[in-house]
Design goal:
About 60% of the residues lie in helices and about 15% in strands. It is an alpha+beta fold and about 110 residues long.
Length: about 110
């Protein structure tokens, strides 16, 4: 990931509703959620939700799949991995022992 893509992702996540959507979709996992379910869960109107989903999609943080008349959204784990890798690229000046606590915190341990 380059600086421009990282800045796009950070800009997308810098708004409260979009951050909430992204975190909700991460929790939803492979099942994802429909736009209507996301809006209902977060208490956000359809037109506002649509705009926020578009911004997250353009930032490669979410992806979607059409299911008949509705659209299901998913966290784009490749996009998230790219952003995390960008942040950790020069981690701790070549001392992996300093980065290990961060990596442990990120690991799914359930």
């Amino acid at each position: 990931m380059d600086n421009k893509h990282a800045l796009d992702a950070f800009a997308a996540l810098s708004q409260s509703t979009r951050l909430d959507v992204f975190r909700l979709l991460i929790k939803a996992g492979e099942a994802g959620m429909t736009a209507g379910d996301i809006g209902e869960t977060l208490g956000v109107r359809q037109n506002t939700m649509s705009a926020n989903l578009s911004i997250l999609s353009r930032a490669n943080l979410i992806r979607n799949k059409r299911e008949g008349r509705s659209i299901r959204y998913f966290a784009d784990m490749d996009g998230m991995r790219g952003l995390l890798a960008f942040l950790m690229e020069d981690c701790c000046g070549g001392r992996p022992d300093l980065c290990q606590p961060v990596i442990n915190e990120l690991a799914c341990t359930s």
